[in-house]
Amino acid sequence: MEVTYRSSAQLATSRSGHLTLLHFINCSFVSRRLNELSKHNPLWRTLCSKHWLLSDADRLQSGVSWYCLFKQYYRDLGRYMQYYPVLKRAWEQLKSFLQQTCPRMIASLKEGATEVELNDIEAQIGCRLPDDYRCSYRIHNGQKLVIPGLMGSMSLSNHYRSEVLLDVETAAGGFQQRKGMRRCLPLTFCFHTGLSQYMALEPAEGRRMFESFYPCPDQTAQDPSAIDMFITGSCFLEWFTTYVHNVVTGEYPIIRDQIFRYVHDKGCVATTGDITVSVSTSFLPELSSVHPPHFFFTYRIRIEMSSGASPEAACQLDSRYWKITTSDGNVEEVQGPGVVGEFPVMTPGKVHEYASCTTFSTPSEYMEGHYTFHRLANKEEVFHVAIPRFHMVCPPFREPVVRTVKTPLFYTTRFDDHDDDGEYCDGDGDDFGDLRGINMAALEGAWCPRHI
Q1: What's the rounded Cα separation, in Å, for the pair 187 and 189?
Q2: Could you give the 3-state DSSP secondary structure of residue 73?
Q3: Are the CB atoms for 235 and 210 separated by under 8 Å?
Q4: Each residue of 71-103: b (16+ CB within 10 Å) or e?
Q5: DSSP-derived pairing of the beta strands 263-272 and 275-283
Q6: What angle do CA 35, 41, 43 make, to 5 degrees?
């Protein structure tokens, strides 16, 4: 028998070769396992649901695996991953709500813009669009130029406003380069008042980048480019999702298939016996100014008698009393017959609503008071019904960086107000091609009957 002897070096080399082979086999196994895990359907299903809000029905319709579906969406929308689920969910909630309450608005929504179209718009205006704005417009490219507008309405007897959410092409046509509004892109537009909300694409002339605002010309400045601003949002994402939340939660009432931007403080309710009074308010930037200080509000009051009240509790409103306190401490008391020229009769289950308006020279005030009623069965039985205290506070506002003061210009606003009738008024709005925003000429010769 032949015996083979190996040196220690040969043995070491042999062991090393075996170890290398084993290591390679192990690495291959681990790599294969990792590859299998990386395409594990439950994992990618979770990611597709989290980032793209996709359902099992979406995957079945696509005909590909969850892994491939995620890759498809990522290639198209990957840059918007932090915004997409929030904005997509907001749009879906809004559309679901509108389908039930304002179905004609659904037809006015436009299909999403493409990435190429948004890039072309950026090249056209010479400014970068924020990613949250781009993301939203990939989902829906705004709204067709129709009434009512998606971004809310307001109606008084001789004043009507309804803001359309502009598509990106129309918005680019109204992109501002003039002094005082440089690098500002319109977000909304109202045909009747010329009112627009804008988004600042650069931090210039006292604005912060990407914040949204209503422009308000300074009527006391010598320079016509002196523009004050009522701030409505710090970025597009906040601006849009806050609005949608207020719509879908019922914060804004739906009146004749339109969204009205009245805000109701849930604590602003008072019940006296069988009668409950609640109040909601709204600030009207198109009829307000910072210089001179002139802040315009409308408020909507709901008076309701409990359906469980006795028929003998039926009554009629005779008069109103208001106590108004401004932020500088001034107090005013107002009283008069009826409400907006009416003397509503309240019976069990009856609801009476009306709108009125007020102007003041301080950024905030609050009102409270009572109505005087008499019983129909006994006119001698007179009683008061409390009106809860409600606050009216204008949005945050900011002055331009530099303003040259001239002799103040004073004016009065006039409104013969009663329950809003939804009629469209032919305002002297600015030319649509310019989209300059607020129409201060609408203030000329107007009057507001305070606290009616």
Answers
A1: 7
A2: helix
A3: yes
A4: eebeeebeebeebbbbbbebbebbeebbeeebe
A5: antiparallel
A6: 85
| pLDDT value at residue 157 | 78
Residue matched to tokens 């205006």? 125
Residue 399's pLDDT is: 85
CATH 3.40.1010.10 is held by the domain 264-420? no
Q: What is the pTM of this model?
A: 0.81
CB 356 within 8 A of CB 298: yes
Q: In this structure, what is the dihedral angle of CA atoms 135, 137, 138, 140, given to the nearest 10 degrees?
A: 130
Supply angle C-alpha 263, 196, 79, rounded to 5.
90
- Sort 245 into a burial class: Cβ within 10 Å, 0-12 / 13-18 / 19+: middle
Residue range 85-240 in CATH 1.10.443.10: no
Q: How far, CA to CA in Å, does 414 sit from each of 99, 156, 335?
A: 37, 11, 19
Residue ranges per domain, the chain? Answer: 48-81, 85-240, 264-420
Predicted confidence (pLDDT) per residue in 80-95, tens digit: 999 999 999 999 999 9
What was the pLDDT predicted at 151? 97
Q: What is the largest CA-CA distance in the chain?
A: 136
Task: Match 């890039």 to its residue by tokens.
Answer: 119
- 300-309, 359-368, 428-437 — which is least confidently predicted? 428-437
pLDDT band at 224 (very low <50, low <70, confident <90, very high): confident
Tokens coding 33? 């396992």
Residue 22: which region, alpha, beta or left (left: phi > 0; alpha: psi -120 to 50)? Answer: alpha
The pLDDT of residue 16 is: 61
Q: Cβ(392)–Cβ(327) under 8 Å?
A: no
In the sheet that holds 212-217, the strands lie side by side as 184-186, 198-200, 212-217, 227-233, 397-398
pLDDT in tens, 188-220: 999 999 999 999 999 988 899 999 999 999 999
